[in-house]
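Researcher: Go.
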Amino acid sequence: MAAPKKGRRPAGGQSRPGRALALILIAMVALTGGMFWSGHTTPRLGIDLAGGTSITLKAKAEPGQESAVNETNMNTAVGIIERRVNGLGVSEAEVQTQGRENIIVNIPRGTNEKQAREQVGTTAQLYFRPVLAVAAAAPQPVPSASSGSPSASPKPSASASGATVGEKPATPTATASTQGRALTEALKAPTPTPTGSASASSSAPPKATEPPKPSQTPDASTAALEKKFATLNCLDPKQRSAAGQGVKPGEPTVACGKNAIDQWEKYLLGPAEVEGKDVDDAQAAIDQRTGQWIVDMEFTGAGSKKFQSITSKLSQQTEPQNQFAIVLDGEVVSAPRVQTTLSASAQISGSFNQQSAQDLGNILSYGALPLSFETQSVDTVTAALGGDQLEAGLIAGAIGLGLVIIYLVAYYRGLSLIAILSLGVSALLTYVIMSLLGPAIGFALNLPAVCGAIVAIGITADSFIVYFERIRDELREGRTLRPAVERAWPRARRTIMVSDFVSFLAAAVLFIVTVGKVQGFAFTLGLTTLLDVVVVFLFTKPVMTLLARTKFFGDGHPWSGLDPKRLGAKPPLRRSRRATASAAGPVDPKEA
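Model: Structure:
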């Protein structure tokens, strides 16, 4: 009979459990440190727990254009609604599609909640406005009507736009800002209109002895707009969102936007000349000559006439009056310069990459989408109700955890210590990861997610029970504890993996085929199932291996939960056969 090889580990053996414990300890310290470093030490709560409003919108297409309700248009609408709501300072709003034609908007409780509810269902406002002046984002001294001379010329400033509009792409050039007297002249100048003259020039201020014309009078509204432009701070999110709100299309306004180097600038804009509905189509493309990303625009019949009229006048102006601003919900998304007269089609070129070109194309296309939204439901959860639901969920979880611990202590005695420690490690990892996932991917802990965490307590405890019962089976066969721990692990490991795989598969399918709050339940269930595998492999098994070496567990103390007498252990089968054979003596083969 061949002798066993030296150094060979028993099946399922783990010679160095300290490595696994060190690994999970390092992971716990790193995740906990990351949680405190990020400043998010509590999980982000959903609407049903923190309070707020949940709005369900249903997309409606114009008659004969039902195909407009598609994935691309819905995703564009989601992006615009999210941008609009978050622009009001509701930074944790959630906007997502539900099914094919619904959009769910969750607005957390906050100071701008009412205003956000009012703007959620409104159609996006897209306008093309001529640029009168461009300035740095920070507020400036209010220009005086008497400062400078009537012939003061604009002073150069930083680039306000990295794009050019024309029949052919062109290299971006610098723009200018209008200060002092030039700002007043720009406001008094007659704004080019589709039916106006072919040029847009500034008129001289009226003489004191002559009655000024109405269009040239610097009245209170002009002075107020001039002051608003000078004091506007586009670095302040609240001022940015409020800058162009509540202004009629036919009125001049101020707005904020980012330039080609991603810096905020402020704009003084004239009345809208082209509306979003005048755009027939817009999409990103690659210029075959230069290989750069561009945006191609197509206008409707009426839109072509308007665009041809305004571009013929802007192309004759100096910078920045030769620019037109594409304004979405009061924010300038692009301000290209006009090089020549355009009509039915145009091409915007500049510092585009694929993503920025596609984003601008989607924004321009949305102005022409035959989509409107009607509010299906509005559910408001007060802070008190959300707190009550959170408290109820925590109580339910505490009751479930308490019952599991009572069962473990009563049935497994000393082994329950390992199970409780493992549950504690799993709970800590779950809490830290949920806290980190809030700012990372927008995960919000809602009531169904709490239910998923409660269900996970049973899944985790089931893994411990499987392993403990395998160890007890080995002890009943007459083996000592240390070999029993190692021999039981392969069989228990296989069962645990199969069980957790089924649970994770169910959670994944549920997450994919459902929407809304049910996804919170599926996500939490899947996360805790994965953590169960990590905890059992890197904590429960190594700790069990170490405790098997102690006298309390190794000798089968009655309170260890591994007492051979209480388990009904029998002598080893091989030894009992030998004892029976020696007592009976030799057996005659014939008698056998």
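Model: The first strand starts at residue 52 and ends at 61.
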